[in-house]
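thoughts on these tokens:
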Amino acid sequence: MDRDARLRRIRYRAWHRGTRESDFLVGGYFDHCSAGWSEDDFAWFEALLDEQDADIIAWVIGTLPVPDRFAGPMMERMRKTDFIDVARDGA
């Protein structure tokens, strides 16, 4: 898959999680942070997309411990949640 198609696929999966909260959290993170990501960062994010929304939200807000495979700087950045723009949809 070429890079542009891969990015479109990842962005779609990030913004179509199933709940508005997850869309803002995961999609907003992708839009705000992905420009500088390495191949390893994209692989991490793609693995995260396979996880349940409830788990991702719990890891981000700290109600569940972050599994070792997702712990590190990418999750720490996600836990800041300062990238979420709820005005995106005019909400």
The domain at 3-83 is CATH 1.10.150.250 (DNA polymerase; domain 1). The two ends are 35 Å apart (CA to CA). Residues 20-33 form the longest helix (14 residues). The chain has five helices and no strands.
